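Students often ask why inverse folding is considered easier than folding. One informal answer: many sequences map to the same fold, so there is more than one right answer. In these notes we will look at a single instance of the problem. The structure comes first.
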């Protein structure tokens, strides 16, 4: 292996730390992009933006979710065995597959934009979908280069390319949205302008990865084993690994798209046919236009348009909360991207003890990172909305965010469990389990959202039940299929206790300071700081991390000695 890769491979969490730092930077930039974007284009315009992005995410997942993981797994195994020519051939085959899938997704989005928007119950999203279509091709190629780098344990190029994407969204996308709104253009056109930044960002990020790939090839060591498998054999292996992973990953996106369309259609149905449901939103919406339109009949064009406008506004509030809800799970990508190649390399060396150690450490680190974020959203849902989204209704969106905070914990654990199972070769089980969870989510939301006393509040409840069920089943499977795997209480007991105490401290701090200080910003930030300090102190005092797990991190041995861990 080349020397320039050794630092990132010296510890399992070395690469994960680099990628996590990059993702955290991307998310901060993303918040600087999406939070003012909601204010610029309004909740209805943001609904158009979100609906287009949800469709893009599904096609993106189908074309890029499984193959990068399969590529990184095959690259890691071949690199471990010194088969450099095999590594290069795997990459070429994967890049061709990515490009083909990206082109198919492009044609679906560009030429089917109007139909896709109609399926989402938001005809105004067509322009945004069409503008996003070229990005699918670029991201498909990006995924190949990222998978190649990650297979070598080198996470830095992926992190840098993601930051490039995020900066383009912020600078170009937000500027275009502001410009178009300043010209008096409709909200859906401004939403499409905001999406332009995404497409430009993928193009520039791809250029960076191509240059990085060329430089990396120059620094590689001479090939020790020049034997290679056939292109057909490589493609078959890639697809065998990638298809189940893609199904698992795309299931979340597909369920989200179905759920988005379902929530909006059920909201419209309730608004048109069950006037009692208006009472739930009377503090958030003006039902004058809908009431006047219904005088001409619930099936009239005016009534349907008014109901769609109301549902867009409600869903815009929900979509705004999803921006925060997705933050914890996006940070888990750093762990999941490292788990599969690391465990695969350990198994290739027939070191099952090392593989089990990495799997257990990744789940514990997931819990330590996800629990405080989820509990924080649960306790501070409304204050966070007041702090970040001035154009959203804090009471409505705050309640939605609090419920989603619970779901975010389940999603994070589910993601890491899926990666562990896939690395061990159990690639079909996560698909079946996720399918079961998706059915539960759709069934729950179909019935709850239309109920007058529940309405839009039923949408996050479906997330909790869906991902809660998937998480529990995944943990049961992981503990059964990996011999000698630690008990779930030993993995999660101390982090859960620390997060529960932290939640109480945050709740008490905000309740007290809000009575003494009028500024929600000050109270919220102070409560977050207190919660963070309490949680970190408890993690150390409870010895939630072992010396072996810290050894997988950069400078882990020094940290263990400092904390006097056995």
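Output (designed amino acids):
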């Amino acid at each position: 292996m080349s020397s320039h890769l050794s630092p990132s491979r010296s510890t399992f969490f070395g690469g994960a730390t680099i990628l996590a730092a990059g993702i955290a930077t991307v998310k901060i930039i993303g918040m600087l992009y999406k939070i003012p974007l909601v204010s610029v284009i309004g909740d209805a315009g943001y609904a158009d933006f979100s609906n287009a992005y949800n469709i893009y995410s599904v096609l993106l997942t189908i074309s890029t979710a499984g193959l990068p993981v399969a590529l990184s797994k095959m690259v890691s195994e071949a690199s471990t065995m010194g088969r450099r020519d095999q590594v290069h051939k795997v990459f070429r085959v994967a890049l061709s597959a990515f490009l083909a899938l990206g082109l198919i997704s492009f044609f679906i989005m560009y030429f089917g934009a109007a139909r896709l928007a109609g399926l989402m119950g938001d005809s105004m999203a067509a322009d945004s979908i069409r503008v996003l279509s070229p990005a699918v091709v670029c991201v498909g190629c990006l995924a190949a280069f990222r998978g190649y780098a990650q297979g070598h344990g080198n996470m830095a190029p992926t992190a840098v390319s993601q930051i490039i994407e995020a900066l383009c969204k912020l600078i170009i996308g937000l500027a275009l949205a502001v410009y178009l709104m300043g010209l008096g253009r409709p909200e859906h056109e401004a939403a499409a302008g905001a999406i332009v930044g995404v497409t430009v960002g993928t193009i520039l990020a791809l250029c960076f990865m191509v240059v990085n790939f060329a430089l990396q090839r120059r620094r590689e060591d001479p090939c020790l084993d020049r034997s290679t498998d056939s292109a057909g054999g490589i493609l078959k292996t890639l697809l065998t690994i990638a298809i189940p992973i893609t199904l698992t990953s795309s299931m979340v996106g597909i369920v989200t798209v179905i759920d988005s369309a379902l929530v909006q259609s059920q909201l419209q149905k309730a608004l048109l046919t069950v006037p009692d449901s208006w009472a739930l939103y009377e503090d958030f919406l003006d039902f004058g236009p809908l009431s006047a339109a219904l005088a001409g009949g619930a099936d009239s064009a005016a009534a349907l348009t008014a109901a769609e406008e109301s549902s867009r506004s409600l869903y815009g509030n929900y979509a705004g909360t999803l921006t925060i809800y997705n933050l914890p799970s996006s940070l888990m990508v750093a762990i999941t991207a490292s788990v599969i190649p690391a465990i695969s390399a350990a198994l290739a060396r027939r070191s099952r003890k090392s593989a089990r150690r990495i799997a257990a450490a990744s789940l514990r680190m997931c819990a330590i990172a996800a629990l405080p974020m989820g509990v924080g959203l649960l306790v501070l849902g409304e204050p966070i909305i007041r702090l970040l989204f001035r154009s959203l209704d804090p009471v409505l969106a705050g309640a939605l965010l609090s419920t989603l905070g619970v779901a975010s914990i389940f999603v994070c654990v589910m993601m890491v469990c899926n990666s562990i199972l896939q690395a061990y070769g159990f690639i079909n089980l996560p698909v079946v389990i996720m399918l079961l969870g998706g059915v539960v989510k759709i069934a729950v939301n179909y019935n709850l959202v239309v109920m007058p006393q529940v309405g839009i509040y039923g949408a996050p409840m479906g997330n909790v039940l869906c991902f809660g069920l998937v998480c529990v089943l995944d943990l049961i499977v992981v503990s059964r299929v990996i011999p000698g795997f630690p008990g779930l209480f030993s993995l999660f007991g101390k982090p859960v206790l620390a997060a529960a105490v932290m939640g109480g401290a945050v709740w008490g701090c905000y309740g007290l300071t809000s009575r003494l200080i009028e500024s929600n910003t000050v109270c919220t930030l102070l409560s977050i700081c207190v919660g963070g300090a309490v949680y970190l102190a408890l993690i150390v005092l409870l010895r939630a991390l072992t010396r072996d797990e810290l050894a997988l991190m950069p400078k882990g041995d020094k940290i263990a000695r400092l904390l006097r861990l056995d």
